[in-house]
């Protein structure tokens, strides 16, 4: 919702970002967008984001953020920076509460294609909630070969880089 409002604020036509099957999303429906439930409707949501927001440089990482996507893509690099005797010690459920909070669906949202991410939440909590995110990423990335980074990077990161490259060539 915030991304859409910002695009409109910066003069992107509403018709470009609010197009839905039945026409253009009303201002009233946009104001209530944060109340929508998208559980089980991932395909339609992803298609709408791809068609309406990505052309304007808006990207989302799923199921949580780029940190979790990087941890999933390069588990050995992140495991390799854990000092001897250190590392995650929290169970998935407790880590999920720390990472996701307790007010929302918690692990219940991690179904289907997102099921594999549940096991990463203890490592996510350890690396990104108890240590410096930038330092953690730099240390893990320093363990990777450029070829591995290029071939295994999260899809959303590859899409962002392609968008940046195209934007630089366009202007």
Automatic annotation (TrEMBL):
<protein>
    <submittedName>
        <fullName>Uncharacterized protein</fullName>
    </submittedName>
</protein>
